[in-house]
Write a structure and sequence with these properties.
The protein is mainly α. It contains three helices and no strands. The protein has helices spanning 18-26, 31-54, 56-69. The protein starts with 17 loop residues before the first helix and ends in a 14-residue tail after the last helix. The model has no long low-confidence stretch (mean pLDDT 90).
Length: 83
């Protein structure tokens, strides 16, 4: 995913509820910054939701393999051994 700090910003037009916009301005909120942060969060959420859907067969196959064969290199996991 893109990191927000390194992205060049671009002007856009949005249609927002006038009442909400007025209240946000009265509270001194930076509407552009707030919308940008919330949109970034939603884009990331949808990106990973899509990624999980697109890769669910591979994830299921990997999980099934681990279930039958165990974790690769499990014998080197000293923190899981008793003693």
């Amino acid at each position: 995913m893109l990191q927000q700090e390194k992205v060049v910003k671009r002007a856009t037009n949005l249609s927002l509820s006038s009442r909400t916009l007025d209240m946000a301005r009265e509270m001194g909120m930076n509407v552009s910054q707030t919308v940008d942060a919330l949109l970034t969060e939603e884009v990331q959420r949808q990106y990973w939701a899509r990624w999980n859907t697109d890769n669910k067969d591979a994830i299921a196959a990997y999980n099934a393999r681990i279930e039958t064969e165990g974790l690769p290199l499990a014998k080197y996991r000293s923190f899981m051994q008793g003693g």
